[in-house]
Design brief:
Blueprint: E1 12-13, E2 16-25, E3 28-33, E4 38-42, H1 44-52, E5 62-66, E6 69-75, E7 82-84, H2 94-110, E8 120-122, E9 127-129, H3 140-149, H4 159-165, H5 171-180, E10 187-189, E11 197-199, H6 212-227, H7 229-233, E12 242-246, H8 253-264, E13 268-271, H9 273-276, H10 283-297, E14 301-305, H11 309-312, H12 322-340, E15 343-349, H13 357-360, E16 365-371, H14 376-387, H15 398-405, H16 410-426, H17 434-442, E17 456-458
Parallel strand pairs: 12-15, 12-16, 13-14, 14-15
Antiparallel strand pairs: 1-2, 2-3, 3-4, 4-6, 5-6, 7-8, 8-9, 10-11, 16-17
Helix pairs in contact: 2-3, 2-5, 10-12, 14-15, 14-16, 16-17
Length: about 450
Amino acid sequence: MENKIWFSRGTKIDDMILDKLIASDQNWQIIITSFDIYILFVKPILIQKWINDNFITISLFQKYIINDEEYYLYVSKKDYLISSSEHGPFPDNIISAQSFALALKETRTININIPLHNSIFIEQISRLLPTYSVSETFDDEYLLGKWLSGGVNISIRNVNRLSVLLNWMSKEDFYSIVESANLKLNMLKSPNNENIQKITQNNEKFILKGRPELENFFNEHIIDVINNTEKYKRMGINFPSAVILHGPPGCGKTFAVNKLIDFLDMPNYQISSATIGSPFIHDTSKKISQVFDKAIETAPSIIVIDEMEAFLSSRNTSNHNTHRLEEVAEFLRRIPEATEKNVLIIAMTNMIDTIDPAILRRGRFDHILEVKMPSIEETEELVESVLSKIPHNQNINIKDISARLLKRPLSDVTFVIKEACFYAAKNDIEFIDNELIISAINKLPPIKKEEIKIGFGVH
């Protein structure tokens, strides 16, 4: 998203003074005025595409020329939103959410297939206008989920995860909005309240391509236990034990955990330096406790501890101060309690050797799994997945691209394809191809010469 406003702040247009850039791209900008009125500025090339695809008529826009440059602008009425579905502003009330859903439905009556992942929402005309950007796309279920959640990449099918993010919306309102968008969910009435609906349980097998051992572990030790509670309770197993995934940066730990979270569709909570870190004594341990309390309250649920070495490194090291000891003690106390109360705990680290031995003992984390660099199958899967969401040449050699990216972090896969998209957009190329992707790969730093093992291990 560009952040340089086309017109200087304070420019006067039709008695309105331009104030703040809300969202922008190469061919459009959304600006709010000093009277809290939204204005959409569009370059002629984009206007013409909308007209050709029957999304608008030219009469909706005013022609505006400044410094010999031609623009078209749409001015909303007060209290009507113009927004980027990718960058916001996002809704904080039912009316705005419902308006977006209706606009999605109306837009789909015009064109059912065009990507709307980076569309412009004009509430007043009930329309989502595509921006034709060469970037990763996603379906309408993710489009609506991202809009409702304030920018989180989440499908409306992940009802439990969304409910954590949408604390301002009831489930009745949520299902009403989904219905307004003309999207379908497989729903059943809840036995506790006929007016509340829920998603049917997912009984399919969890798939993690390229990681058969990790896939089997998740299916056997986590998913089967959750789906067959009575069978396991007879043998004294109430809920899956806590798990640690460890391995080098970029090996796919986060990728695997996110796949599992999507499959389980439970409320999930993150513990990381970014979410709970604090310079104040006792504050971090207090936040840790609050996360555990919330997870227990909404159980069955999931707590993901990212970069666990930031909180749980060995207490024998000289750099451990009093409040760090307090944080380790808080985890030691809360992990067994949460597991007993149906909270699945998954921790990740790049430095397993630094973790406090008390944390690694059985009874807290029963399973410690080593995740090595991604396999060729996993790399191919990610390449296929990313390419499926962007305009690309069908002759791209996925096996060759994946082989060139082997032994690299999965983050490099998405990076090189995004770089290829960047150069395609910059040079007005409609599809990315082999040449653009390979050019991006060649700009990556060389892999270190030492051997990088690929696979999976269980301790």
